[in-house]
Amino acid sequence: MLDVNFFDELKIGLATADDIHNWSYGEVKKPETINYRTLKPEKDGLFCEKIFGPTRDWECYCGKYKRVRFKGIICERCGVEVTKAKVRRERMGHIELAAPVTHIWYFKGVPSRLGYLLDLAPKDLEKIIYFAAYVITSVDDELRHNELSTLEAEMEVEKKAIADQRDADLNERQQKLEADLAELEAEGAKADVRRKVRDGGDREMKRMRDAAQRELDALEELWDKFVKLSPGDLIIDEKLYHQLQDRYGEYFTGAMGAEAIKKLLETFDIDAEAESLRETIRSGKGQKKLRALKRLKVVAAFQQSGNSPLGMVLDAVPVIPPELRPMVQLDGGRFATSDLNDLYRRVINRNNRLKRLIDLGAPEIIVNNEKRMLQESVDALFDNGRRGRPVTGPGNRPLKSLSDLLKGKQGRFRQNLLGKRVDYSGRSVIVVGPQLKLHQCGLPKLMALELFKPFVMKRLVDLNQAQNIKSAKRMVERQRPAVWDVLEEVIAEHPVLLNRAPTLHRLGIQAFEPQLVEGKAIQLHPLVCEAFNADFDGDQMAVHLPLSAEAQAEARILMLSSNNILSPASGRPLAMPRLDMVTGLYYLTTLKEGAAGEYTPATDDDIERGVYSSPAEAIMAVDRGALTVQSRIKVRLTDQRPPADIEAEQFPDGWKFGQPWDVVTTLGRVLFNELLPVEYAYVDEQMPKKRQAAIINDLAERYPMIVVAQTVDKLKDVGFYWATRSGVTVSMADVLVPPAKAEILERYEERADGLERKFQRGALTPDERRDALVEIWKQATEEVGKAMEDYYPDDNPITMIPKSGATGNMTQVRNLSGMKGLVTNPKGEFIPRPIKSSFREGLTVAEYFINTHGARKGLADTALRTADSGYLTRRLVDVSQDVIVRETDCGTERGINVLLGEKQPDGSIIRDAHVETSAYARTLAADAVD
């Protein structure tokens, strides 16, 4: 018996008929499932107790033996073994097929293993298997060679007889024609009548010649086919095959269907074929060598694995245990059944019908048709829909075959074995939690109570607030006030895991310390959204609870979000300000010329103005309205490190903490620098996103992770605050159309007209005209975009958002207020007429149409690309399962050459523009020296 519960390793191979019989506990002969009156399984049916075991523990079908004391006895009346009903999950049956069938996986897969093994094209293989063509399975070359001259002589005699008969018939017809013409002439018939009779005679003689020629050609074709006949040859013409069979049947054998494939496999010598293919690869070239390589891959796989190729042709079909394809009664007396039962039923019905037809001695054509139908039903059982239209059930739904139960996201492996549902987990919609620290998440009270229920119950008993676990459970379920205090205590420093699907990299699951929040939504820290690729438009996340001390320690040390600031892909920080935070920090660090309270140096006529002894004094001035955070000021700082140039100028011996120094800057930049660690040199510049990222990257390299986490949290808070204070928003009044646009377009329209005239004169080909038009309108779009950027003031919120790096880019702003420009068609080619309008002005009907044309394809492609990339990731993970990184540098000198910089004529080196992505966070194979 096949024991499925205890094993050390799993090897998947081809099952031979003997294997299938060994696994089986009996043959399933009837398509019936259960008796609808008694609701008991039918004998010899798909749920038969004799084959698969009893439906009730320790009880046979007829009821003669009941109780465990009869364990192991096989009832002599009903033949059912007295055992546990659990065996109906393990015991298999089989269906003995009246004709062999091929396994669809091996002939219809890509590449077709059966096709490569037998050197047959998949189309030809399909014709053989589905009874559309005959294949020659063996040829007696010796007998044919010995008797070839005799057979040829016989063929020549037959040809001569046909030719002689043709000549005799023609001669006779010619004489009759001449006699008829002579008779007509004697009777004085008109020339018209005589011509008609002659033409009729000539036509009949031509027909006789053609008929004889066809017969001779058929004999010639038959002979040529017979002389060149070799195993594996296909004969699609049934008439030709039967003629060959009738004349030369003793020299060859042929067949169609899986029987033919079985005969070819029986005579197939794997070792000899492998050697022959290796020889072809050594000496062959081009396509021949390529095909031999592909075939050898399959042949060698069979050779090494020890699988018998005959396993690809089945004489028996295994029937899986009935508990794995159950049948359950619904309310109202109807039954719901697994699709597999329908597919097995089709196989049994067709198999029984084929047996009956063979017993009756039905004509070959009827038997072959039934064999084809049996092959199709077994195909549908193994992999429904792989070939042709799938077998459908009620409501035109394709039935789920054995392959469908295993493959894909809903299959046995991914759904049940790899992706089990677990206790101590929950899921909910996420909302932003801007008040949280980086290592925290907001957990709804009700969810936390359910997740931590056993911990709360135990703690209630420990504190003597409940006498036993039962009363503690009742307290929790009734949500008594004491429960919430205990819950606060229990969740303190007990991390939870948050996961957002799809988990595409390791940061898709991170640990957080839960904070109890009202409502039913999980609150997520804004800075971890990047790692999770989360947004708040309805995304959901799952919560998991690490239970053991080891799991909690692992979550806290390895998975806590504040310890996972760097991206595993690039080594750069992922938790950094984005969107509103970027805009806020950009606004805060912007210097606005001519703003209120601006610093002016001392002159002969006036003293220095806009000078402050400390940041606190400057803040007071802002509160009074005498100053803005963007005004240039001179301020004295003591607890921030000066930048290198000021340190060299003001402190030749080096700056010490607490020493005062003066800087001309803005209050906003002073406030920004207060967020950075004290030892970090003062940064006196505007802060777009790239600059913010560079600072956090620098912090991550120089400071402990805890400092980085605290810094990004401060940046988040200040970013949000100043984004609110800045009042940056988008309104129609902010979308400004450049006045120069009309003149620019007019100029380029003239150039396009000139090009059109050239084309009309024949000076340009259509392709040249198209390319030139595309180039003209690209230039026009760029010029309109430049005019638009120049026209926008610096403090315009619409340009501030892309300039700060928060989101979007200037192309989108150009679409809004400049012009859309050239768009593509679904083939990806530029349409040579541009969209001259901007979205602010509104598009014409024609412009609207050509704009949606390519955009629709873009959306469809995005959906398809997502699916493809997901599948590619799975395959890459599969092939790299056993690749483990054990050390940072393995010491090899093999590597990839990367350009770090280029030496200039003056001796200086200019760094390569792409060095950040090409060389950063990689290990050098050899020292980089000048």
TrEMBL record:
GO MF annotations, alphabetized: DNA binding; DNA-directed RNA polymerase activity; metal ion binding
Pfam families for the chain: RNA_pol_Rpb1_1, RNA_pol_Rpb1_2, RNA_pol_Rpb1_3, RNA_pol_Rpb1_4, RNA_pol_Rpb1_5
CDD domains for the chain: RNAP_beta'_N
Reactions performed catalytically: RNA(n) + a ribonucleoside 5'-triphosphate = RNA(n+1) + diphosphate
Coiled-coil intervals, chain numbering: 148-222
Annotated ranges, domain RNA polymerase N-terminal: 310-589
EC number: 2.7.7.6
UniProt xrefs under SUPFAM superfamilies: beta and beta-prime subunits of DNA dependent RNA-polymerase (SSF64484)
Single GO cellular component term: DNA-directed RNA polymerase complex
Alphabetized UniProt keyword annotations: Coiled coil, DNA-directed RNA polymerase, Magnesium, Metal-binding, Nucleotidyltransferase, Transcription, Transferase, Zinc
GO biological process per UniProt: DNA-templated transcription
Family affiliation: Belongs to the RNA polymerase beta' chain family.
Chain's role: DNA-dependent RNA polymerase catalyzes the transcription of DNA into RNA using the four ribonucleoside triphosphates as substrates.
Record protein name field: DNA-directed RNA polymerase subunit
Naturally occurring in which organism (per UniProt): Gordonia sputi NBRC 100414
Gene that produces this protein: rpoC
